[in-house]
Specification:
The protein contains four helices and twelve strands, in the order βββββββββαβββααα. With about 270 residues, the chain is α+β, with helices and mostly antiparallel strands.
Length: about 270
């Protein structure tokens, strides 16, 4: 991939939409890597088929932009008259700013900026886990250039990556294959330790809940036992009162009745 690394605008991605009336709209997203507001840009758009084969190229230009420094921006383009294509990219050739001189492509500065991408596998997994989701390759120093972990080629005098803003020296030092693997293993160990801590904590909470549940059961049993005792005592007292009352009534009745001998004498005494 040939590019002028001094280009202040980088093409990022292509998306498109098809409408029911046959219209097709392309959405081209760029990143303003400069410290100025971009007001216009032009370049050459390459259309590719599903197999990646180049189909054709078209000159494109976008004006009346207000792209903020360091931020992505999207340009719309009607592509109704283009042949059917699956993907597109834009090589930026000129950029205008709100202030200052415009930037123009210098073909003598074109450099092969194909990043040394890591294929899917354990090394790629470790790099992404340590460096972040935008990590594409191990950083490298290449003479007057340096390749960031995000895959962007930068001039050596640039202390920060033009794309992701990572520090040059820190990036080249931290993300070597050896240090990346060590950091990845440390990260895995920390994750495992945290998982173990959470399991212990959950186990402790489970034991606490079990103890609380057992205590609650014992408390309910004690309350039921107390209630049983109180109920039994109340029943016993009630029965005792009833027996005592019955005895008193019986005693009164016996006291009020005449003696049996006297009653018999009265009956046998002649008139």
């Amino acid at each position: 991939m040939l590019m002028d690394i001094a280009c202040p605008v980088e093409f990022q991605r292509f998306e498109d939409a098809r409408f029911g009336d046959g219209r097709r709209q392309a959405y081209l997203t760029f990143l303003n890597e400069s410290e100025q507001t971009v007001t216009a840009l032009s370049g050459r758009m390459a259309l590719r088929g599903r197999d990646g084969r180049l189909l054709e190229k078209h000159a494109v230009s976008f004006s009346r932009l207000q792209a903020a420094p360091g931020a992505p921006f999207t340009c719309h383009l009607a592509v109704d008259g283009f042949q059917d294509f699956a993907g597109a990219s834009v090589a930026v050739e000129s950029v205008s700013f709100a202030q200052g001189e415009p930037w123009t492509l210098d073909t003598s500065r074109l450099t092969d900026c194909t990043p040394p991408l890591l294929p899917p596998g354990p090394h790629r997994t470790a790099l992404v886990a340590v460096a972040g989701p935008d990590a594409a390759c191990y950083p490298e120093a290449r003479g007057a250039l340096w390749v960031c972990v995000c895959g962007r080629f930068n001039r050596w005098r640039w202390l920060n990556c033009r794309r992701c803003k990572r520090d040059r020296n820190a990036t080249l030092t931290a993300f070597t294959p050896e240090r990346t693997q060590i950091a990845y293993e440390d990260k895995l160990a920390a994750i495992r330790a945290e998982d173990a801590r959470r399991l212990r904590q959950q186990g402790g909470r489970s034991e606490t809940k079990k103890r609380e549940a057992a205590a609650s059961v014992r408390q309910r049993q004690a309350i039921r036992a107390v209630r049983s005792v109180v109920t039994l005592a109340a029943v016993t007292a009630t029965v005792g009162l009833l027996v005592f009352g019955a005895m008193k009534v019986t005693a009164r009745m016996q006291a009020a009745a005449p003696p049996a001998s006297a009653a018999a004498h009265d009956i046998l005494t002649p008139l």
